[in-house]
């Protein structure tokens, strides 16, 4: 059976550059590779065809022979299709290995220094802390380098041996036969887990882990203007690193507690202040205490309605990392008295009569009615 045109197999023109041929091969190989199409014989045959075409067109000498003599000419001198290519590469075997084995052709060895993990700490602060900044003492439980073995995992005075399986490399080589030829795979050594060493006598204090759990007390500086989205990073106060690696960081998640008087809206603060009916009608001067404990004077004009807002500039909260400060918004709430004396009732009825307002007379209580009936 006549072979298909290699250029048609890869979907490129006869004038295609080496890069264009390589890109076309990668795209098709990824699509038809047997690992991506388990049990699909057609895909397997198509992949072989794609690989054969690329083997020829990626090699300038073979491509020249192919262009002049066809497939038979290209096969001359390298054994024809299906020959054992040993560890021959596919335009760099690492390229195809990275595509199909997730880059595992390279060692996944982790014998070098390993940075410690970042730790999370949830810190609740008050609105006063937000206004002025604060220093908070926190207690963190974390992994620290073992003081007995200093992190090398072995009992002091004992030897650390080279792993006999990988000879200290932390990785082992496996050879796998496939229709592509022999595939060389590099894997992490299962015995030493990539460290290249074995410890016959692990440290008694840390059981060979190199780290121990310990409690550490720290002081965290909370800057003014933080909110519930603020994350503070305390460098070097996370978990200890391994094999000489540096420690992680402590990430402080800020939570702002609700205040019993003030309500926050960004950088602004809101405060509800009750006033009497007469104060609203005739006007008054109010004195309120801001978030920093300082007194602010509010002028309330006559005829003020409930819900009216009076703004005190720059008496709110600071903006994080800025000199900008929000406002204090004072909302007055006119209170209606619920218990009146006889004199107060008399005055209010007279006032209502002057304004032409109709008020409903309250029903007398049963006891009052009985007293009136008895003439008392």
3D structure, described in words:
The protein is an alpha+beta fold. 25% of the residues lie in helices and 26% in strands. It has helices at residues 6-10, 18-32, 41-57, 60-69, 71-75, 93-101, 127-132, 277-282, 342-355, 366-373; strands spanning 119-125, 134-145, 161-162, 171-178, 181-188, 197-198, 211-222, 231-234, 250-256, 262-265, 268-275, 284-289, 295-300, 309-312, 328-334. The strands form six sheets. Strands 10-11-15-14 form a four-stranded mixed β-sheet. A three-stranded mixed β-sheet has the order 1-9-8. Strands 2-7 form a two-stranded antiparallel sheet. The longest helix is centred in the N-terminal third of the chain and has 17 residues, at 41-57. The chain starts with 5 loop residues before the first helix and ends with a helix. The model is unreliable at 77-110 (pLDDT under 50).
